[in-house]
Design brief:
Layout lengths: L1 H7 L2 E6 L8 E6 L8 E9 L2 H7 L14 E9 L18 E8 L5 H4 L10 E2 L17 E4 L3 E5 L6 H4 L5 H12 L6 E5 L3 H12 L4 E6 L2 H4 L2 H4 L4 E4 L4 H12 L4 E6 L4 H9 L1 E9 L13 H6 L3 E4 L5 H12 L4 H4 L5 E3 L3 H10 L6 E3 L1
Parallel strand pairs: 9-10, 9-12, 10-11, 12-13, 13-14, 15-16
Antiparallel strand pairs: 1-2, 3-4, 3-7, 3-16, 4-5, 5-6, 5-8
Helix pairs in contact: 5-6, 5-12, 9-10
The protein binds zinc ion (2 copies).
C-alpha cells in the first residue's frame, strides 16, 4: 500500500531561492524514495515567517539554493519502512492524517538532546533552512516535504485548519517556549515588546495562562490593533519608533518597578535593551525575537544584580511547546490569534506572497500549493 501511495506522487513542485533578493524559481522535481521512518507529506499550508524574509533578503547567511518555509501543516501521504513513526503522544502516524511538525529534527541521543535542548541537537536538521539538492524536499514553499526521523509531529485537532495551524511550528511554539522558561504566570505582570506574530502569540498565551496583566508595546498602531482579536484584555502601548522614545517609555513604566516577565519579541537593539531594563525585582526577561545579527544592546549590569533578575535566550522550542501551541490555537482562548492568519496565496505567486509579507500589512501570509 505504501508503494502505491509513493508512486502516486512522482513529482513535487518547489520554489527555490537561488540568490538573496532574487525571484524564487518554481520547478517540478522528482519525489525521492522514502527512507526508513521518513514521512512524505502533502503541504496544505505554509506561513511566511519573518526569518524567511531575513534569508530571502540576504540579512543572514544561508546555504543556497534552498526551499524556504518552516511554518507548515500538511497531510500524510506515505510513511517509510521501519518501526512506526509516532506523534508527540506516542501514537503511530498514518496516511491521510493532517499534521504539523517541529521546525527541527533532532537525534535524541546527543548531550544536548538528553539535556533538554533538542532544538540545539549536535546533528540538528531544520526544515526550510537547509541547502537543497536534487534529492531533498526539506522546505515548506513546495507541494510536498519529506519528514526525517527525530521530528516532533502533532496531529491537528478537529476544527483547526491547516492555514490556522501553520504558525504553530515557529511563532506560536516559540512563544510557548518563552513563557515556559518564564514560569508560572498567575498573578504576574507581563510586558511584550513587539506585536508581530511572535509577540501576539506571547500575549494570547500569557492571557490564557492567567497573567495578572499583559502589556504590548509596538511602534506600528495597525499591529497593536490586532490585539483586539489576539488578546482583547491586553493593554497596548504605542511607541514612537525611535530608540529615545522607547527609553522614555521604559523609564515611565519603571515607576511601577517594571514587569515580572518581559519578552522581547521585537528583535531590535532598542527592544532588547528595553526588555532587559524593564525587569522587575525577581523577574525574568526572555529574549526571543532576534534571529539575525543586530549589534550590541546596553544594560547596566547593576540593574540585573540588584533586581535579582534572570535573562534568558529562547530559540526554537521543545516538542511539548509545539503541542501546547497547537492546543492553544485550537482552543477558544486561541481562536482570536488563529483568526489573524492569512491571506492565503498560491505557491505559484510565491514572490508576491513574500513581497506582501515584507510589506507588513498582514501578520502572516500563507502559501498553499
Ligand atoms: Zn520562523
Ligand atoms: Zn541530538
Amino acid at each position: 500500500m505504501l508503494e502505491t501511495a509513493e508512486r502516486a506522487v512522482a513529482t513535487a513542485r518547489v520554489a527555490l531561492l537561488k540568490r538573496p533578493g532574487g525571484s524564487l524559481e518554481l520547478r517540478d522535481v522528482p519525489v525521492p524514495p522514502l527512507g526508513e521512518r521518513e514521512v512524505l507529506v502533502r503541504i496544505d499550508a505554509c506561513a511566511v515567517c519573518g526569518s524567511d524574509l531575513h534569508t530571502a533578503h540576504g540579512r543572514r547567511p544561508h546555504p543556497l539554493p534552498a526551499i524556504l518555509g518552516h511554518e507548515i501543516a500538511g497531510t500524510v501521504v506515505a510513511v517509510g519502512a521501519g518501526p512506526d513513526v509516532v506523534d508527540v503522544v506516542g501514537e503511530a502516524i498514518t496516511a491521510g492524517e493532517q499534521i504539523t511538525w517541529s521546525v527541527c529534527a533532532s537525534c535524541g541521543e546527543c548531550d544536548r538532546c538528553r539535556g533538554g535542548l533538542p532544538q540545539k541537537c549536535r546533528q540538528l536538521f531544520k526544515y526550510g533552512h537547509a541547502a537543497n539538492d536534487e534529492h531533498s524536499l526539506a522546505g515548506g514553499f513546495a507541494s510536498h516535504v519529506v519528514l526525517r526521523p527525530g521530528t516532533a509531529i502533532v496531529r491537528l485537532p478537529a476544527g483547526l485548519t491547516a492555514v490556522a495551524a501553520a504558525p504553530a511550528s515557529c511563532a506560536v511554539a516559540t512563544a510557548a517556549a518563552a513563557l515556559r522558561v518564564a514560569g508560572d504566570l498567575h498573578g504576574r505582570s507581563v510586558v511584550v515588546l513587539g506585536a508581530g506574530m511572535l509577540g501576539l502569540s506571547v500575549a494570547s498565551l500569557a492571557t490564557a495562562r492567567g497573567a495578572a496583566s499583559v502589556t504590548v508595546v509596538d511602534s506600528r498602531p495597525e499591529r497593536l490593533d490586532l490585539l483586539a482579536a489576539a488578546a482583547p484584555q491586553a493593554n497596548t502601548v504605542p511607541w514612537s519608533g525611535n530608540e529615545a522614545g522607547l527609553e522614555h517609555l521604559v523609564t515611565g513604566m519603571l515607576v511601577a518597578d517594571g514587569a515580572d516577565v518581559v519578552v522581547d519579541a521585537g528583535g531590535s537593539v532598542a527592544t532588547a535593551q528595553a526588555a532587559m531594563r524593564l525587569i522587575a525585582t525577581g523577574g525574568t526577561c526572555v529574549l526571543a525575537g532576534t534571529v539575525a545579527p543586530v549589534g550590541n544592546a546596553a544594560c547596566d549590569p547593576e540593574r540585573i544584580v540588584r533586581r535579582q533578575a534572570t535573562i534568558r535566550g529562547v530559540h526554537n522550542y521543545r516538542p511539548e511547546d509545539l503541542a501546547a501551541a497547537v492546543s492553544h490555537l485550537a482552543s477558544p482562548a486561541g481562536a482570536g490569534l488563529a483568526s489573524l492568519v492569512g491571506p492565503v496565496m498560491p505557491l505559484d505567486a510565491i514572490d508576491e506572497a513574500l513581497a506582501m509579507a515584507a510589506a507588513g500589512t498582514a501578520v502572516r501570509v500563507v502559501v498553499t500549493p
